[in-house]
Amino acid sequence: MGEYATLYALAKMNGRQAYILPEMHQQLAPLFRITLPVVSGNMYWSIPWRDYELHDWMSEEYRHIEGKYVRLTGYPCSWTFYHHLRQEILQEFSFHDHVKEEANRYLAGLRGQRRNVTYVGIHVRRGDYVRVMTKKWKGVVADKAYLEKAMGYFRAKYQEPVFVVTSNGMEWCRENIDASRGDVYFSGDGKESSPGRDFALLAHCNHTIMTIGTFGIWAGYLAGGETIYLANYTLPDSPFLEIFKPAATFLPQWIGIDADLSPPPLTHSG
Known about the structure:
Pathway: Protein modification; protein glycosylation. With 270 residues, this protein is α/β, with parallel strands linked by helices.
C-alpha cells in the first residue's frame, strides 16, 4: 500500500502516468477499488527501465525525476509522499462493497446491548518481528504494559469501547491481553492467511492501537480516528534509525507511548 500510494503521488508530482505490476494488482485489487493501470508482462520486459531508488520518506529531488521510463524501487512508507492527496488515496483504498459489508456485519455482532459503542481496532505484530527487532535492530516489540496503557486511554475517554484484536500471534494476545471486562474480542484464528479480513476489520473501527509495522500504520490511516503507536522502540544507536524516521512515519496527531527498553530481569538457575 505504501508503494502504491507513493507511486500514485510521485507520478502526479512529475506529470507522468503511473502503472503497477501484476503482482501488486493481485495483492490489492481483491480488497480495494484501485484505479492505476497494470503494465502487461510483454510490455514490462520490452521497456528499457531506469531504476530510481527511493528512501523511506519524501525528498525534494523526487519532484523532478528524470527519464522517460522510470521504475521506482525501495520500500517507501511515509505520509510525507502522499498525505497532501489524502482524499484521493482514501478513494484508491476504498473497499469493495462485499468486503465492507462483511467487516461491518462482524463489528455489529459485537455491539450486544451497548448503545454508545466505540470500536477500537488493535493490531499486534508478532511473528518474525519478535526475533528481528531484538537481534538485528536493538529494539523491542509491544509488550503487555504498552497494550494496557493504550487500552486504558480509550477506556477513560469513551463510555463503551469495544476492542477488536487482530494479530499474527493470537496465542500471545490471548495470554497477555486482559479480556475479563467483556470488552475485548479476538478476531479470527491469527493465521497469516487472513490478513485481508483482519485489515478490513481494523480499517472499519473508529480508532486504532498499533504496535509496529506497516499493516497497523495503514489501518490507522484508513480508519481516520485516533491512533496510538509504540514509540522509541529501539536504542538510540540502532541501525534501524538510519533507514526509519519516526516523524515521517507516524502522523503528527497520532499518540506515541514509549516502549520499555529496560533489559529483562536475569533468571538464576539452581
